[in-house]
Amino acid sequence: MPNTVLVTREPPIAVVQLNRPDVLNALNEEVLGELVTALGTLDDDGEIRCIVLTGNERAFAAGADIKQNFVTATPVTMLAQDLTARWEAIRRVKTPIVAAVSGFALGGGCELAMTCDIIVASETAKFGQPEINLGIIPGAGGTQRLTRAVGKWVANEMILTGRFVGAQEAKSIGLVAQVYPAASWLQDAKTLARTIAEKAPVAARLATEAVDLAWNSTLDAGLEFERKAFYLLFATEDKKEGVDAFVNKRKPTFKGK
């Protein structure tokens, strides 16, 4: 069977591509399993400092595979699959992940993008949580992450109507960081990833963890983590390199140490 997830290493970055174009990259257990394995392998690869997660021009991922996942599903079978554990494994990848979205990012596809550290989009992108049309609600973080990204009122409007949001609107409401031209969206996303990969890797990992904590915890807990992470980085070689490069007006070379 063809791989449902393709990995291209371009050190210091890697591109992970969902590869079910015949069903608009619909997510099923096989895809999520391969995705977790691919991201975990790259997370352990010292040469890879940023990951681009993408689909194709037509779709990032158009949601869950309804026929495989939902038609005969019961609470017991859903519990046994425990797909939530796959989402949590993706969220815990320490290497920064850029979601590069072209076309549809709907339902689980939108939720997958929101597990990443940055979302960028082609001008053709469309985001949405249309689960209400199936008589269900988002079940992989959509009600929580979307609300934190765009606020209660917009999240409720999107979730309760199931409407799609275009790229420019997604940027205006805070769901997307950048919108790129349709002709260059993936290259632009890779350029962003390379910029991130040039930075100090330990600092980048701690920064994404601190920002994620701002979503998931209290201000006091976030400030405490930030303070300790800030102090910890003063023990790294990269901190010494960065400061020396600044003082001597040269470009730093970070080693992740």
Explain what you see:
It is built from twelve helices and ten strands. It has 257 residues and is α/β, with parallel strands linked by helices. The chain has two domains: 5-197, 2-enoyl-CoA Hydratase, Chain A, domain 1; 201-247, Lyase 2-enoyl-coa Hydratase, Chain  A, domain 2 (Orthogonal Bundle). The strands form two sheets. The chain has a six-stranded mixed beta sheet with strand order 1-2-3-5-7-10, sandwiched between helices. The chain has a four-stranded mixed beta sheet with strand order 4-6-8-9. β2, α1 and β3 (50-54) form a beta-alpha-beta unit. It is globular. The mean pLDDT is 91.
CATH superfamily of the largest domain: 2-enoyl-CoA Hydratase, Chain A, domain 1
Say what the CATH topology of the largest domain is.
Answer: 2-enoyl-CoA Hydratase, Chain A, domain 1
Approximately what portion of the residues adopt beta-strand conformation?
15-25%
Can you give the helix content as a percent range?
A: 40-55%
State the low-pLDDT regions, or none.
none
Instruction: Estimate nothing, just give the exact number of structural domains.
Output: 2
Overall 3D geometry? globular
> Helix/strand-derived class?
alpha/beta
- Supply Rg: 19 Å
Which strands sit side by side, in order, in the main sheet?
A: 1-2-3-5-7-10
How does CATH name the architecture of the largest domain? Alpha-Beta Complex
SSE order: EEHEEHHHEEHEEHHEHEHHHH
Instruction: Calculate the terminal CA-CA distance, rounded to whole Å.
Output: 40 Å
- Main beta sheet, described? 6 strands, mixed
Number of E-type strands: 10
Q: Determine the mean pLDDT.
A: 91
Name of the CATH class of the largest domain: Alpha Beta
Total helix count? 12
- Oligomeric state: single chain
